[in-house]
Amino acid sequence: MLIFYKTMNITDSDIKVLKAIFFLDTPTRKEIAERAGLSTVSVTAILGRLIRQGLVTISGKSGSGGRPSAIYRIVAGFGCTIGVFIGADRIHITGVDSAGDVINEREVDLAVSSHPVDRPVELIDKVSREIRRFLEGERLKGKRVLAAGVAVPGMVDTERGVWLRGLQFPGVENIEIGATLEQDLHLPVIIEDPARCMAFLAVSKKGRSAAGDFVLLNLGRGVGASIVINGELYRGNHGLAGEVGHLVVDPGGSRCSCGNVGCLETVLSEPGIIRRFQQRIAEGVISILQRTDPAELTLEHISKAAQAGDRLAQTTLFELGGFLGDACAKLIHLYNPRTLVVGGNVGILGEYMREAAWQTIRQQVVPEMLVDLCMEFDGTECGGEALGAALIAQRWSWQHIGELIGRKPGGKLNP
């Protein structure tokens, strides 16, 4: 699979330079030399050779004072990675090139057996089949695929690549999904939590140095949090940090997939919000949302109703904003972030939840912890989890690029 690199006679010093270019935000010759631990003379020679081989190019000049320095980047065709998000009813797959640009993406419906015993095998077979179909597609044909990142809902041991609990997929428990997919795909597979994929996407957009420290509360089909410290993901013991979706916030509320009653996920997830609106509409509360079939109700319907001044939409979202503020207050107390990002599909409702959230935060958090705190709402487009997973796989690939270059086609390489 990676015979291309052998024909280029890539040396250890070449790998050091390539890795430095990838991991630096603005890789000038001097910065590359410092990170690679090589002299600037050696780096100059290596860069010239890599440019002639078509692996590196000059992308611009640094804007610092004095004589501008060339900024280098790895060419888009060096290799690609794919990201996969397994949702409750869909699979989203995205491929990115070496520059982090999307090559192709695909979304397919996910329908598996309702029987918990059969579901895990059928689910992974379906995911594996769709990934292979994606890899065989025209846009990835002939490209060097380095690794795959897979975001799964529920609880995941990222160190071992084990899907501990599917939650939204009853019957999925302690599934070695990473090893199974590696065997099927003949690729290194990195298993990750969707919230961390979303946070890594945010880091990639800003750059690691600019991203700094922040906490992302991901509100989608489920609820999770991701902690970023100095531009790096914090995963915790076995990768289980950020399981805030199962904090009990509404003891009189709905039953959660984890078995508890009134978890944050039952209140602030997309299904939880829609269920609350469906209940209010069923009670006969006057609202323009009554014109929509309750079974077809979406977050977009709710957002448009609130924008139109619908009282039910605005008051219900204000109420939900209080729960959001409670969750944010807990995260602020624990991590004291400079920025708190509310992301995921539910982020599109942020305008109507912000005031109540801030009221609750100010009531619960000591003022000293709120100095300079910024809360951002990011209604990320569909597929953000898959894109983040692809970028995590890309980063992992560059951390192990020396091993990947020497890896035989189909050979196993544990993440």
Describe the SSE topology.
Blueprint: H1 3-7, H2 12-23, H3 29-36, H4 40-52, E1 56-61, E2 70-74, E3 80-86, E4 90-96, E5 102-109, H5 119-135, E6 145-151, E7 155-157, E8 162-165, E9 173-175, H6 177-185, E10 189-192, H7 194-206, H8 208-211, E11 214-219, E12 223-229, E13 232-234, H9 264-268, H10 270-282, H11 299-307, H12 311-335, E14 339-343, H13 354-364, E15 374-378, H14 384-399, H15 401-405
Parallel strand pairs: 3-6, 6-10, 11-14, 14-15
Antiparallel strand pairs: 1-2, 3-4, 4-5, 7-8, 8-9, 11-12, 12-13
Beta-strand percent range: 15-25%
Assigned CATH superfamily of the largest domain: ATPase, nucleotide binding domain
Overall number of domains:
3
Strand order of the largest sheet: 5-4-3-6-10
How many strand segments? 15
What share of residues is helical?
25-40%
Residue stretches low in confidence (pLDDT < 50, at least 5 long) are 1-7, 407-415
The rough form would be described as globular
Task: Please write the string of helix (H) and strand (E) elements.
Answer: HHHHEEEEEHEEEEHEHHEEEHHHHEHEHH
The major sheet is characterized as:
5 strands, mixed
Q: What is the level 1 CATH name of the largest domain?
A: Alpha Beta
CATH topology of the largest domain: Nucleotidyltransferase, domain 5
Derived structural class: alpha/beta
Measured distance between first and last alpha carbons: 18 Å
How many helices? The count is 15
The gyration radius over C-alpha positions equals 23 Å
CATH architecture of the largest domain: 2-Layer Sandwich
Mean pLDDT: 88
